[in-house]
Specification:
The chain has 230 residues and is an alpha/beta fold. The protein is built from 8 helices and 9 strands. The chain has a 4-stranded antiparallel sheet with strand order 7-1-8-9. Strands 4-3-5 form a 3-stranded parallel sheet, with helices on both faces. It has a two-stranded antiparallel sheet with strand order 2-6.
């Protein structure tokens, strides 16, 4: 543990807590101070000036990252039998209905994204208490309830991610891996941030983009200058 402690201390020393960095500087720094021995996720933590208790300010949505997430997402599609092959051809790891509903009921949730056709949602609703707490419940707002399951699968595989604000008004989202070039991480981050700016609720008062911090799975956080955002 002492060895990791030294590495973390050295990483902390490279970050100036009194400074706000541009997005590109922050991404380069996160790569430099990363202490993980694996290809860690690079995450944005965005504090917004909103009240998530108000329905029109409980932001959630999707964004397609131009350089993908760097992680192959496992996709489960709940669909009618005639759509199973189409979903699998588009890249779905699992496609079907009753057998997968039973598997989930039995505790299986070894997937990253769940997509469903509207006509099977009555059955999928029965396993909401399993999928919901894990953030896996299909939802029309995130494009995961759709008759066009093949298109939805293809978008997820290319780098489409979903996000939602937590009860503290913060959005946490991965925008790539530490193996990415800093400019690609910045491009992905900008795509998410510009989407959030476009989604600003008309009822939100005061500063909207309160703070943005970048960190990898095991690195200290780097504060981003919100005024530098495109």
């Amino acid at each position: 543990m002492a060895k990791v402690g030294k590495k973390r201390a050295a990483a902390n020393a490279k970050i100036d807590d009194t400074k706000l960095y541009t997005l590109e500087e922050a991404m380069a720094l996160v790569k430099e101070v990363n202490v993980a021995k694996f290809d860690a996720s690079v995450d944005l933590h965005i504090r917004l000036g909103i009240d998530p208790r108000k329905a029109d300010q409980a932001l959630r949505g999707t964004v397609s990252l131009p350089h993908g997430t760097g992680k192959t997402k496992r996709v489960l599609v709940f669909c009618t039998p005639d759509k199973e092959e189409e979903a699998k051809a588009a890249g779905a790891d699992y496609a079907g209905l009753d057998e997968y509903i039973q598997k989930v009921q039995d505790g299986w949730t070894d997937v990253d994204v769940v997509i469903a056709m509207p006509q099977v949602m009555a059955k999928v609703g029965r396993i909401g208490r399993v999928l919901g707490p894990r953030g896996l419940m299909p939802n029309p707002k995130t494009g995961t309830v759709t008759p066009n399951v093949a298109d939805a699968v293809a978008e997820v595989k290319k780098g489409k991610i979903s996000f939602r604000v937590d009860k503290y008004g913060i959005i946490h989202s991965s925008v790539g891996r530490v193996s990415f070039e800093p400019n690609k991480l910045a491009d992905n981050a900008n795509e998410l941030l510009s989407t959030l700016i476009r989604m600003k609720p008309s009822t939100a008062k005061g500063t909207y983009m309160k703070s943005v911090t970048v960190a990898s799975t095991m690195s200290p956080g780097v504060k981003v200058d919100t005024k530098s955002l495109r």
